[in-house]
Design a protein that fits this description.
The structure holds 2 protein chains of 2 kinds. By secondary structure, chain A is an alpha/beta fold. Chain A has 2 domains: 6-110, 3-Layer(aba) Sandwich (Rossmann fold), CATH 3.40.50.2300; 127-181, Arc Repressor Mutant, subunit A, CATH 1.10.10. Chain A is built from 10 helices and 5 strands. Chain A has a 5-stranded parallel sheet with strand order 2-1-3-4-5. In chain A, helix 7 (127-137) crosses helix 9 and helix 8 (142-149) packs across helix 9 (153-167). Chain A is elongated. The relative contact order of chain A is 0.10. Mean pLDDT of chain A is 83; it is low at 114-122. Chain B is mostly helical. Chain B is 70% helix and 0% strand. Chain B is built from 9 helices and no strands. The longest helix of chain B has 45 residues, at 200-244. The radius of gyration of chain B is 21 Å and the shape is globular. Mean pLDDT of chain B is 88; it is low at 159-164. The chains are: A alpha/beta, B mainly alpha.
């Protein structure tokens, strides 16, 4: 995911920049890494795929950073990584951690985003298919599902066909197990 | 793979496809037969060579038209073969997979609810499979044996009076469902969605055994649907015709 990508690090703290650069090079084999003390007067941001910026820079250059296509990660001194920050807030990386902790956090940050749904479900099933799957695994029949979701039985059948095709799971027991594994239903519900 | 004939050495055939070892076992042939041909081994063990060759070819080719040569006289043998297959599911294959699932759960570093789901799914599957096998053993096979006896004795069969009519091959055809679909789902789930810290070798073995059981079950269903069922239907028709004559 990071291999070969252009990374920009912007911070007045040169020691932190060098440290981060070393960790990135050792664990993630990125492409070019550019280190800047200040973003002002440089167009390096336009080229970057990932940009680590100090919180100062983030506050001062927010407008510029917001329009950038780069994945922005704000460097903080706060020991609490922004795991529970709202989605609108940028990703953060705390510099107050051990080398290993920073590497782990980086790996988590670089992992492809799969949205809020567990197991990347949103990428495979549409929300409607997920609704149908939930009903099927709770033991409802096509007719009941059609009534519950206010759609025709024909549509239910077509959703079921798509679900089976996407997941490669044919039986109700198999679908139920899938739903349980992905947290669509709880074991009490089925 | 080329057609197996009675003149082939049995050892060579098994070297060619080791999945046939259980097939040979179920026909009552044990390993350790030296250099003998299929014909010679069958003569020694009292197995109909035509039957064994047909079943092995069908298994290899995944094409059961190869078994068209089998006639009513083979019905008893087919049923015996299917019963042995049932016994091997019950005594060996299913318990082995169950045991492996337990080992897998034990191997997990911390309590893994996903693995508990696998166990639950397989237990449920086992229950259904055993019910299916029992139904065949207590209803289908005795029915087939009685049709077979009536047919071979040359009688008209007492189909109407004994109430045998209540059950027939068409009933069997209707209720005969595929037992391999659920297995396929479990395999798929294990391959795609079971994550956590556990012994990968054990998990791999389970998937491997599920593949093997699935192939075996498909084969079993093929024998029932494409060999046994048409044969018994022919005999049913013949018995009815005799009754009318």
């Amino acid at each position: 995911m990071v291999a070969g990508k252009k990374i920009l690090i912007v911070s007045a703290n040169q020691l932190a920049c060098i440290g981060l650069k070393t960790i990135l090079q050792e664990s993630f084999s990125p492409g070019e890494i550019i280190v800047l003390a200040d973003l002002h007067g440089s167009d390096a941001l336009a080229e970057a795929d990932i940009a680590f910026v100090s919180s100062d820079t983030y506050v001062r250059q927010q407008a510029k950073l917001r329009t950038s296509k780069a994945h922005i990660i704000v460097l903080t001194e706060d020991a609490r990584d922004g795991a529970d920050t709202p989605a609108a807030d940028p990703d953060t990386l705390s510099m107050a951690h051990t080398e290993q902790e920073i590497a782990d956090r980086l790996e988590a940050l670089f992992r492809p985003k799969t949205g809020r749904s567990p197991g990347g479900l949103a990428e495979t099933l549409t929300p409607r298919e997920t609704d149908v799957l939930r009903c099927v695994s709770q033991g409802y029949l096509n007719k009941q599902i059609a009534d519950m979701l206010s759609i025709s039985q024909h549509t239910v059948i077509s959703h079921r066909k798509n679900i089976t095709q996407k997941l490669g799971i044919k039986t109700v027991s198999g679908l139920t197990m899938y739903a349980l594994l992905h947290g669509l239903i709880t074991s009490k519900e089925h | 793979m080329k057609q197996i004939t009675q003149e082939h050495k049995l050892a060579d055939v098994l070297h060619g496809n080791y999945m046939l070892i259980p097939v040979v076992n179920r026909c009552g042939i044990r390993l350790g037969f030296g250099e003998k041909t299929i014909g010679a081994v069958c003569a020694e063990r009292g197995v109909d060579p035509e039957f064994l060759v047909a079943v092995m070819n069908a298994f290899n080719a995944e094409n059961y038209s190869a078994a068209k040569k089998l006639g009513p006289k083979h019905v008893h043998m087919i049923v015996q073969y299917l019963k042995k297959t049932h016994a091997s599911y019950r005594r060996n294959q299913i318990p082995a997979i169950e045991a492996s699932i337990e080992v897998l759960i034990q191997s997990a570093v911390e309590n893994n609810p996903r693995l508990a789901l696998v166990r639950k799914f397989f237990r449920q599957y086992k229950k259904e499979l055993f019910l299916h096998l029992k139904r065949e053993e207590t209803v289908t096979f005795p029915y087939i044996e009685s049709v077979y006896k009536g047919f071979m004795s040359g009688g008209a069969g007492k189909t109407k009076r004994t109430g045998r009519r209540k059950y027939s091959m068409s009933v069997y055809e209707e209720e005969h469902d595929n037992m391999d679909e659920k297995l396929n789902d479990l395999k798929n789930i294990l391959i795609k969605y079971i994550t956590g810290d556990f012994n990968d070798t054990v998990c791999g073995t389970i998937v491997f055994e599920l593949f093997r059981l699935e192939k075996d079950l498909q084969d079993h269903t093929q024998i029932e649907d494409h060999i046994l069922m048409p044969l018994v239907k022919t005999m049913e028709a013949e018995l009815t015709a005799r009754g009318k004559a």
